[in-house]
Amino acid sequence: MSEQAGGVRRGKVSAVPPDLRIADDPVTRPAGRPGQGRAAHVTASLLLAAAVLALLLPFAGADPPAGLTGSNAPFTDEGFNLANARNRVLFGRFGIDDVDRSLTNGAYSAVGAAVFVVTGPRLAAGRAVSMVCVAAAVLLLALGLVQPFGRPAALLAAAALGGADLVLEHGRLALVEPMVVLLLTAAFVLAVRSRRRPSLPAGAAAGLLAAAAVSVKATALLPGLVLLGVPLAAALRDRARTQGEDGRVGAAVAAAAVAAGSGLAWLLAVALPNADRLGTALRVWPSVGYPGSPGALASRLGGYLAHSDQALGRSAPLLAGAGIGLVAAAIRWRALDPGRREALVMAAGWGIGLWTAIAVGDYAPNRYVVPALPGLAVLAGFGLAALGGPTPARGVRRRRLAGGAVAVLLGLAVAGPGAGRFLDGSDPAADQRALGQRTLAARIPAGATVYGAYAPTLLFDTRLRLVAPWPSAGANVRDPVGRLAVTYVLAGGPGDPTLEAPDLRDGARLVPLARVPWAGREVWLYEIGQGSDGMTG
Fold it and tell me: Are 59 and 428 in contact (CB under 8 A)?
């Protein structure tokens, strides 16, 4: 039997007198008191998402920034990623040549095609999809983390994601990574929710979202396994301990079953009937090798730390926040309730696990780490909220205002540098692509087929048939004139694979028509003139 004396409980000792007990500890308090400040929090969340969208929208028609990455992807991959969605709207099917990337970025091409039905094939519309994905992911973190971590941590996590330089830089381009960010974030929020309010529909939705993320980019497989596996393992462990059933096991099993079932359905309905085309699409991917020994692993990680394609430097504020989160979690681990522990484990496995997997590969453009950043943002939000400190019961209102001010300052500290760098390095008036497209389109008749690695991006808004060569995959390089009815060629300088096709290698049949600047080089438009075989352009 415990006794009380002088306001201190003996037996189970409370080391803090009642008038100084923590009333609003952002790390250890029971999560999400309903009603208190809910409207203000929703308003703040919407404003934060709107601010991110307002940052991005002015760049919908702008050129990619120079110096963002050592990869040429910002100047080619927008057109590559959306080419098959464009084909679906203009020509009635996703695949019109050897390469059908809708087989390897499934949900992305499906969404792109749906948007283009309304807007017509426009690269700005494809970019808008990415921008909405980023803003929606920010909103999901701001609203979906209230239950496990409280409102300050939720807003700080959302700010950390929305202000991450790489999220903004790639989030304004028509790349697949922003959609992966949204799908994984939504799956994470549902997985976290299932801890307190498990349901079969929510579990099934989490599994479907994880499967959709993998369909967009295969690197989502690791975080998908983390987001589905951790709740399932935790639910099975807790059921074994309590010998009871709270619905969590059913929800977690439903998530895993739906994800596996989606994969099986894709295999039967898409992969097997299109096995040859899928094989070509997979060969388009760059090959990645992983080290086979601890020494090689250490060497690979050391090499990545030295040359990360700017990923570490551009993510430094977010990485610092995530580091604070890891320290705070280690210090407070025993005081955290199981729901928070589970959420933190998922966030760490997602963010740190995926980034590490990318780092040990031998091909890692900085856009590859973008899907890992929401997991790090969750850790950062938790850590920064802990750094902001608890609110003692004495002077609650005044100290809550002070705590709010601290939270704003912390949010600016983690989000401000990335947003500032994004704005400093981007020019909304840069329109080389739009000007080049007008120049090139004026020289090409309707119904023509244009061949070139830059064609899908530079001529995206036209109604021309566009074919990109992939020599590494053996795709679209065999007799492009006779087999693919190519009549015009768009070729750049060194490194452009366009002229590697045997029919075009000697350049004897190419008649120059125009040139435009793009990707730091001159890109030439050629007409295929009459050759000795009698074919004409």
Answer: yes
Q: Go through 243-280 and write b for each residue having 16 or more CB atoms within 10 A of its CB, e for each that does not.
A: eeeeebbbbbbbbbebbeebeeebeeebeeebeebbeb
The gap from C-alpha 101 to its chain's centroid, in whole angstroms, comes to 18
168, 134 Cβ separation under 8 angstroms: yes
How far apart are alpha carbons 248 and 226 in whole angstroms?
16
- The closest alpha carbon to 146, from 42, 23, 3, 8, belongs to 42
30 three-state secondary structure: coil
Q: What is the DSSP string of 448-503?
A: -EEESSSHHHHTTTS-SEEE--BGGGTBS-SSHHHHH---EEEE-STT-GGGGSTT
Residue 424, judged by CB atoms within 10 A of its CB (0-12, 13-18, 19+), counts as exposed
What is the pTM (predicted TM-score) of this model? 0.90
For the segment 425-453, what is each residue's pLDDT rounded down to a tens digit? 888 888 999 999 999 999 999 999 999 99
Do 223 and 375 touch, CB atoms closer than 8 A? yes
Q: What average pLDDT does range 29-39 have in this prediction? A: 60
| Contact between 192 and 186 (Cβ < 8 Å) | no
**Percentage above 90 pLDDT, the chain:** 74
Task: Kindly list the distances between the CA atom of residue 120 and the CA atoms of 79, 128, 366, in Å, as whole numbers in the listed order.
Answer: 14, 13, 30
Can you spell out the DSSP letters for 72-128?
Answer: SGGGTHHHHHHHHHHHHHHHSSS-SSS--GGGTSHHHHHHHHHHHHHH-S-HHHHHH
The token duo for 316 is 């430094």
Helix 106-119 and helix 177-196, axial crossing angle in degrees, nearest 10: 110
Nearest to 279 by CA among 484, 98, 452, 456: 98
Distance CA 393, CA 399 (A): 9
**Residue 121 to residue 140: CA distance in whole angstroms:** 29
**Count of other CB atoms within 10 angstroms of residue 370:** 26
Residue 444 CB partners (closer than 8 Å, separation 6+): 450, 459, 462, 464, 488, 525
Taking the C-alpha atoms of residue 332 and residue 387, their distance in angstroms, rounded to an integer, is: 12
Cβ proximity of 368 and 422 under 8 Å: no
Q: How far apart are CA 94 and CA 273, in angstroms?
A: 14
Q: Is the pLDDT of residue 20 over 60?
A: no
Distance, CA of 441 to CA of 449 (rounded, Å): 12
d(CA 353, CA 500): 39
How does the average pLDDT of the chain come out, rounded? 88
Distance (Å, whole) CA 121 – CA 119? 7
Under a CB-based contact definition with an 8 Å cutoff, are residues 517 and 440 in contact? no
* pLDDT for 534: 36
Q: Whole-angstrom Cα distance, residue 121 to residue 79?
A: 11
Q: What is the mean pLDDT of residues 84-107?
A: 95
